[in-house]
């Protein structure tokens, strides 16, 4: 098999592959489709769309949605929870980049 070809099972390990329907995603998070739509409206997660226009979510998006759900369950407004999760994600990325730069300097 040429290296550029993909196997159907390759997507099973891909955190960004949109494998979950809205109903399945809501079930996995013990929430409602309305909650997932609200996350999209607040631009926390933007699901991909199937050819038929149905929302599809990746494992990465579900982890982000789960974090927002934790905050909302603790009493945080959904808009604020989305902003907090976005800032947490940005901070984590900045810390990763800083660590890479520090490691590059010591080489």
Automatic annotation (TrEMBL):
<dbReference type="GO" id="GO:0006355">
    <property type="term" value="P:regulation of DNA-templated transcription"/>
</dbReference>
<dbReference type="GO" id="GO:0003677">
    <property type="term" value="F:DNA binding"/>
</dbReference>
<protein>
    <submittedName>
        <fullName>MerR family transcriptional regulator</fullName>
    </submittedName>
</protein>
<dbReference type="InterPro" id="IPR009061">
    <property type="entry name" value="DNA-bd_dom_put_sf"/>
</dbReference>
<dbReference type="InterPro" id="IPR000551">
    <property type="entry name" value="MerR-type_HTH_dom"/>
</dbReference>
<feature type="domain" description="HTH merR-type">
    <location>
        <begin position="19"/>
        <end position="87"/>
    </location>
</feature>
<dbReference type="Pfam" id="PF13411">
    <property type="entry name" value="MerR_1"/>
</dbReference>
């Amino acid at each position: 098999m040429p290296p550029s070809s993909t196997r159907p099972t390759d997507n099973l390990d891909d955190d960004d592959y949109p494998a979950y329907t809205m109903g399945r995603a809501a079930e996995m998070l013990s929430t409602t489709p309305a909650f997932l739509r609200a996350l999209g409206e607040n631009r926390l997660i933007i699901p991909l769309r199937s050819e038929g226009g149905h929302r599809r979510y990746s494992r990465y998006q579900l982890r982000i949605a789960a974090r927002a759900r934790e905050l909302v369950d603790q009493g945080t407004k959904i808009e604020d929870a989305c902003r907090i999760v976005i800032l947490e994600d940005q901070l984590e990325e900045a810390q990763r980049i800083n660590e890479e730069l520090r490691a590059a300097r010591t080489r």
